[in-house]
Amino acid sequence: MTILVYTENREGRLIKAAFELISYAKEVAQKTNARVVALSIGDVNRDELMKTANYGATRVVTINDEKLSLMDNKRYISVVAEVAEKEQAEIILLPDNTTGKALTPGLSAKLKAGLVSGVASLPQSYDPFIVKKKVYSGKSIANVKILTDRKILTLPSNSFGVIEPESNGEPQIEEFTPDADMESKINLVSMNKVTDKILLSEAEIVVSGGRGMKGPENWGMIEELAGLLNAATACSRPVSDEGWRPHSEHVGQTGKVIAPNLYIACGISGAIQHVAGISSSKCIVAINKDDEAPIFDVADYGIVGDVQKVLPQLTQAIKAIKEA
Amino acid sequence: MKILVCISEVPDTTSKIKHINDNKELDKTGIQWIINPWDELSLTRAIELKETPGSKVESITVVHVGLQDSEPTIRKALAMGADNAIRIDAQPQDAYYVASQLAKTIASMDFDIILTGLDSADFNGSSVGGMLAQQLDMASISAVTALNLEGEKILVNRDVSGGTQTLEVQPPFLATVQKGIAIDPRIPAMRGIMMARSKPLEVLEATNEVTPLTEYVSYEVPPPREACRKFPEENAKELAHALHNEAKLI
Ligand SMILES: Cc1cc2nc3c(=O)[nH]c(=O)nc-3n(C[C@H](O)[C@H](O)[C@H](O)COP(=O)(O)OP(=O)(O)OC[C@H]3O[C@@H](n4cnc5c(N)ncnc54)[C@H](O)[C@@H]3O)c2cc1C
Ligand SMILES: Nc1ncnc2c1ncn2[C@@H]1O[C@H](COP(=O)(O)O)[C@@H](O)[C@H]1O
What we know:
- The complex is a heterodimer of chains A (about 325) and B (about 250).
- Chain A has about 325 residues and is of the alpha/beta class.
- Chain A contains nine helices and 18 strands.
- Chain A has a seven-stranded parallel β-sheet with strand order 7-11-6-1-4-5-12, with helices on both faces.
- Chain B has about 250 residues and is α/β, with parallel strands linked by helices.
- Chain B has a single domain, classed as HUPs (Rossmann fold, 3-Layer(aba) Sandwich), CATH 3.40.50.
- Chain B has a nine-stranded mixed β-sheet, sandwiched between helices.
- The termini of chain B are far apart.
């Protein structure tokens, strides 16, 4: 059996989610006696592709075609489907991010392969194939059975973690030229890259502010702590609605759903719609002056107090630890 | 130009979720059903485009796969400003089942733009839109944050991994939309509510040729998180140490 892992790159380097997916695939492969094949689309150099072996891939299919520089869903779906057929992949793994969301539904329909997106953990059972996923915006967890032989899963960033890499020799690397139809109906007008910042959807630590921050002029505190922790910044919906922060930072049911290892909520009440976007965080820290704020119901650690006083002190204390 | 907006019906965002029948089903008692927030916004954007002076948008149709009890939700979409509605009479089984029902019905109708939400607040599948586009062999663009008609051009903004892009797209195409597509959902006015009663809501029979690919076997409500460990205001230092030594996160 083959597990095909879609390994995404940014500017030629595989993203952490790619290694996380291979790590997941390796665990599944050990239980099902499968091999792990990585698929890489784009200009990724050999050294980078070699790294996949350290996490468990034994083979890499790499496609470097000009026509794939723009993400055209249909084109990409055809290409991934072609590779899946060629490698006779029974399980196909993609990240649960914009790329995974763009490709997996079409892939599922094309291959008639059952899709479960946002899988929370290793499969509960393999025969029948049952996985868990969050539903109703995190308020419930469903056991979903995939009824088809071929299965597609997407994994949220940081949910599974990366296994300790070990030196496993070299993977077999095949440069592949797909037959897939390369016709496209979309044209790129402009692109705005965010390469200098840590992406909110992938960050291991997120520092987030709500209306309790009082105004955009106070975000320096949030940014300072974020900078210190190598964290991404986020906010509640009213904060982005008021234009204090860009919309891309809004987390919650109607914003981004994230699952960092550490989420620090500053002046956020913890409304159910906000919590829907952060409840998968491994650890939640809340700073709020209201002892009764619902954010404390989901937080692991909290400080009841004025964020304007607490945040600089927390930053100082963390700085001291980092320097020690 | 004809726009189709796919709407799904979900529990109101504040609803408490409980399960019955051996945790195999959702307990529907007390649940308020609403238009999925994304779908409300995509419909709002379609209406805005139609209302623009000199607009090329001729009509907005909403479509929903569901049983008769979902009609109040469909009427709300009509009250917001959709021109007509289609209900495909079937109990949704999984995303593929829903997409297949939609595809069978829509294949013979010529819509220029089809809008779906990025994800619906029930099963959070993020699936129906992309599956539908594939079945219609139509271009699809996902994570769309803006849709603009400029002269003959159709421009969309979308999120991609590592940035945002503006694209020019040729119809017909399907877009799965998210935050940004419209700011606030259109609230139906009294006049809209009155008019909605007489707008066409066509009920179409479902095909029984499609089978789901997945099955939701059972549910469990996650256990509550452990109680929060609170530190007093002046003790930020202790918190920092707990995060370092105990949680080992910093
Ligand atoms: C359909 C729908 C979808 C929604 N989707 C989302 C979503 O995706 N994301 C989202 O965030 N919201 C969403 N909301 C809004 C949500 O219901 C809340 O209104 C919102 O999350 C509140 O934001 P907040 O906590 O920043 O502000 P508030 O609720 O105003 O809370 C501010 C908090 O700051 C505290 N505070 C004030 N001053 C200080 C101080 N000096 N020091 C410390 N603490 C202080 C207060 O005690 C309070 O708890 C949605 C609502 C609806 C109806
Ligand atoms: N029963 C349905 N009828 C019509 N459209 C639907 C239905 N279910 C989902 N959709 C559409 O598909 C989008 C994504 O839903 P999902 O794939 O379930 O997350 C929704 O925002 C709707 O636009």
